[in-house]
Write a structure and sequence with these properties.
468 residues; alpha+beta; Uridine Diphospho-n-acetylenolpyruvylglucosamine Reductase, domain 2; Uridine Diphospho-n-acetylenolpyruvylglucosamine Reductase, domain 3; Alpha-Beta Plaits; seven-stranded antiparallel β-sheet; 16 helices
């Protein structure tokens, strides 16, 4: 294999082919530090042409490639397996914003661009790129596209798929498909763009994209509301959609235990209510008219919700700092759970109307099978996506708890299936859920996926062992 790596060095420069274990370490371990794979090397191309050359070399030598962006994924999709056969292809050096078109409301970006950088570039141009994730300071747009990432603004703007108009992709044969079209209408055959988005690098390597921009809102307001049950939150969602329409941008559900964890591990973050309530919803309005108009909508919504007894209390942010403080409570939940210790994460979706029933019934099932477990339930209620996480009972050792992960997963995922949902809402399948999905997808659907993989990547060199 030294011949392969020597040819890679000739193609992209020796400094960009990492083989020293210390240099490779950060590329081989997943974000949660639960798994470390092995690789022949890490390749760091700086252009689409260099990616294509490397892929052609991988074909000639039959070397698998694991594409990687910011390596912030949670399902082992962007790290190699333990065999040591593959190379990691990092797109981090491909981080150029190629073009901003404020008339067409588009931006052309390379796959290695950090999401936060894109947000800032859009703001400099007086526009908004609405994709927002907890990892936005380190995740890349290529990874967002490869996993069809969601985030907190899906309710209004949709997943990453809805925010992309065109792609540039290096195929498994090392050819370049230039589909960087800034068109909102293009009915000229199969939609190849949607085929690659969400494919987790198993069908080709996304190297650039044309993404949608939007006008900056004139006002953005945040409120935290408290209520007895998730069912009350669903009724609040219906009311907010009725009264605020498309101005409703975010609608995040959080249980009391979530905020207890944040307060325990980040005591500098003060909870805004003098007493605890069972459930909370963090909602955000983005208004294109004026701050006065936005305030009127929010005041009307809070008033109606109190009158209809959908909520029992509310705090409205009166400044950007206060709004940031409320969002920080939500964004620190995963960090607080990590500080609490090992936990079992689930990224699921169910029809929005059934979320209350799902939480109630699945909580009861889990307590029946695993008494004392503590549920850390939060997520994007407005689009049906729950982060339905399980922490061990007090006094149970982390290793003993993690040994029950497969049993816990089956209870949670079987329940998701009964409710007509999905076991992966926005994180993807990767290697973590690759086998699990077989229990819930039909053989027809799985065979269609296998046929696509075989047709596009017959040598199985693109991120093998992931998704299917």
């Amino acid at each position: 294999m030294s011949e392969f790596l020597d040819q890679c060095r000739a193609a992209i420069g020796a400094a960009n082919v990492l083989t020293d274990p210390a240099d490779m370490a950060g590329y081989l371990t997943d974000w949660r530090r639960r798994f470390t794979g092995r690789a022949q090397g890490v390749l760091r191309p700086a252009s689409t042409d260099e990616v294509a050359r490397l892929v052609k070399l991988s074909n000639a030598h039959r070397v698998p490639i694991v594409p990687q962006g910011g390596n912030t994924g949670l399902v082992l999709g962007s790290v190699p397996d333990a065999s040591g056969d593959a190379v990691v292809l990092s797109l981090a050096r491909m981080n150029v914003v190629r073009h901003v078109d404020t008339i067409n409301n588009t931006m052309t970006v390379e796959a290695g661009c950090i999401l936060e950088t894109i947000q800032n570039k859009a703001a400099e141009a007086g526009r908004l790129f609405p994709l927002s994730l907890a990892a936005e300071g380190s995740c890349t747009i290529g990874g967002n596209l490869a996993t069809n990432a969601g985030g907190t603004a899906v309710l209004r703007y949709g997943n990453t798929r809805e925010l992309c108009l065109g792609l540039e992709v290096v195929t498994p044969q090392g050819e370049v498909w230039n589909g960087l079209r800034g068109l909102r209408k293009d009915n000229t055959g199969y939609d190849l763009r949607d085929l690659y988005i969400g494919a987790e690098g198993t069908l080709g390597i996304i190297t650039a994209a044309v993404i949608k921009l939007f006008p900056q809102p004139k006002a953005s307001l945040t409120a935290l509301t408290a209520m007895p049950t998730p069912d009350h939150a669903l009724r609040l969602l219906a009311l907010a959609q009725q009264e605020c329409g498309p101005a409703l941008t975010g609608f995040e559900l959080m249980s009391d235990f979530c905020l207890q964890l944040v307060a325990r591990h980040f005591p500098q973050m003060r909870l805004p209510f003098p007493q605890a309530y069972p459930q909370y919803v963090l909602l955000e309005l983005s208004d294109s008219e004026s701050e006065e108009h936005a305030n009127g909508m929010l005041e009307s919504l809070i008033g109606s919700a109190l009158e209809e007894e959908l909520i029992v209390d509310a705090v409205v942010a009166s400044s950007i700092a206060q709004s940031r403080g409320l969002w920080n409570l939500r964004e620190h939940i995963p960090l607080a759970q990590a500080e609490e210790g090992k936990n079992i994460k689930h990224d699921v979706s169910v029809p929005i109307s059934r979320i209350g029933d799902y939480i109630r019934e699945t909580d009861a099932l889990l307590q029946q099978h695993f008494p004392g477990i503590r549920m850390v339930t939060f997520g994007h209620l407005g689009d049906g996506n729950l982060h339905y996480n399980v922490s061990p009972p007090e006094g149970v050792s982390p290793d003993e708890f993690i040994s029950r992960q497969e049993d816990i997963n089956q209870v949670v995922h079987d329940s998701v299936h009964r409710f007509g949902g999905s076991i992966s809402a926005e994180h993807g399948l990767g290697a973590l859920k690759r086998d699990e999905i077989r229990r819930y997808k039909s053989e027809v659907e799985l065979q269609l996926m296998r046929s696509l993989k075989q047709a596009l990547d017959p040598l199985n060199l693109m991120n093998p062992g992931k998704v299917i």
